[in-house]
Amino acid sequence: MLIESMTYKYSAPTLPPATQFGRLVIQVHRLWRRELDHALVGHGLSLATALPLLMLRERGELRQNALAEALGIECPSLVRLLDALAAEGLVERREDPADRRAKVLHLTPLGQRRAQAAEDALVVMRARLLADVSEEDLARTLHVLRTVEGRLDREAETRRPGAEGDAA
């Protein structure tokens, strides 16, 4: 019922499905982010501050540039974020033993606990929001979104400077 009312509210059913799709993806993204921030605020985090913690918890130590790439953000933006997380005692920068010029990021014990609390809150949020969605529907939705994501990635790659077909 919620999905139907949202569809009508933000993407009239008289519009072509492709138009509804784009509008609905944008609206669901906005609403989902709002719920993520709401779930995290009680742990002193926002989505922006939780993502690096969750990524480091999942992948272990990472160089700053690898974390920026994994998060899809620019290094200068990540540096400001890491400065704030380090000031809170959640993240440490250490010398990379393989390259002393590079820094490797580690979660502190407090960062580990905060990342776990964030993940626990997100598990509850996802369960609540997806309670009325069957596993089959969720799998089908993920397939469609990954297909569109793949197309978007391929098209972005062709526009990248130096991509095949660019004039020299």
Outline:
This protein is mainly alpha-helical and 168 residues long.
Structure description:
The protein is mainly α and 168 residues long. The protein has a single domain (17-151), classed as Winged helix-like DNA-binding domain superfamily/Winged helix DNA-binding domain (Arc Repressor Mutant, subunit A). It has seven helices and three strands; from the N terminus they run αααβααββαα. It has helices at residues 2-10, 17-41, 47-59, 64-71, 75-87, 109-129, 135-159; strands at 62-63, 91-96, 99-107. It has a three-stranded antiparallel beta sheet. β2 and β3 (99-107) form a beta hairpin.
SSE topology sketch:
Blueprint: H1 2-10, H2 17-41, H3 47-59, E1 62-63, H4 64-71, H5 75-87, E2 91-96, E3 99-107, H6 109-129, H7 135-159
SSE order, as H and E? Answer: HHHEHHEEHH
Shape field:
globular
Structural class by sheet pairing and helices: mainly alpha
Strand content: 5-15%
**Arithmetic mean of pLDDT:** 89
Instruction: Give a quick account of the main beta sheet: strands, pairing sense, barrel closure.
Output: 3 strands, antiparallel
Specify Rg, calculated over alpha carbons.
20 Å
Strand order of the largest sheet: 1-3-2
Task: Kindly report the CATH topology.
Answer: Arc Repressor Mutant, subunit A
Supply the number of structural domains.
Answer: 1
Assign the CATH architecture: Orthogonal Bundle
| Range of helix content | 55-70%
Characteristic terms for this protein:
Arc Repressor Mutant, subunit A, DNA binding, globular, 3 strands, WH_DNA-bd_sf, 168 residues, mainly alpha, disordered N terminus
